[in-house]
Amino acid sequence: MTRTQRRAINRANSQHSTGPQTEAGKKQSSMNALRNGLTGQIVVMPNEDLQAYQRHLKAYADEYEPKGATEADLVQALADTSWRLNRVAALETNLLTLGIATKVSPVTNAPSEVQDAMAMVAALESQSKALSNLSMHSQRLSRQFERTVVQLRELQKTRQTKEKQDLEDLVKVIEMQEAKGKTYDPSADGFVFSKAQINEAIRTRNRESLIFEAFCYDRESAAA
Angle CA(144)–CA(43)–CA(73) in degrees, nearest 5? Predict the structure, then answer.
């Protein structure tokens, strides 16, 4: 079978696939857009804004600039935990709003402000169990968020320290090779820094050398 014939057959087969047919299948398919692509878990409820969640996730990625799978997973976990914390706050407001809307104030011969306050108290009392559960859930999510932040920052600090040391070592090697009149290819030894990063490191090293030389000269001048 030629490649052209295979493509024609694939196109023909695709015409027979019209997606889920049953209501359950259609419902399952509609939830796919709300899933986290990495874990397959639903992180955005059907009544929530998927685009808002995506902007929320991008904001965390822009802030932490993760490198590698582990950092990316931690940033994803941070964004999801924060999203769920915001949801808890919204649920608390909704519960109180529902309670006030459905609970009659025990005081009927008082100003409207007093009746509203009494209705709020009644709503708090009627929703106390649900609010307590939400509070515990919120505390657990807050602890999870704090632990993840610490873990991510420690991981990034370790990576950045190693990158800085590797870059300094690379600059030294480049200087040694240039002193010998040779051209050095960093990728040959596994270095993955960009040319811009290398040039900036060289400029920084040159500035530090000039500052050190000036400092030594001033000390010698003062001693003389």
Answer: 55
Instruction: Using pLDDT thresholds of 50, 70 and 90, give the confidence band for residue 26.
Output: very low
Rounded to whole angstroms, how far apart are CA atoms 152 and 76?
A: 11
Is 46:34 a contact under the CB 8 Å cutoff?
A: yes
Asked if pLDDT for residue 172 goes beyond 80, the answer is yes
**pLDDT interval class at 42 (50, 70, 90):** low
Choose among 105, 96, 36: nearest CA to 72. 36
Radius of gyration of the chain (CA): 31
Phi and psi at 37, nearest 5°, equal: -65, -25
Q: Which tokens sit at 33?
A: 């857009």
Which residues have a Cβ under 8 Å from the Cβ of 108 and sit 6 or more positions away? 115
Burial 125-163 (b: 16+ CB within 10 A, else e): ebbeeebeebeeebeebeebbeebeeebeebbeeeeeee
CA 93 – CA 138 distance, rounded (Å): 14
Place of tokens 């023909």: 12
DSSP codes joined into one string, 151-186: HHHHHHHHHHHHHHHHHHHHHHHHHHHHHTT----G
Q: Tell me which of 119-123, 160-164, 175-179 is least confident.
A: 119-123
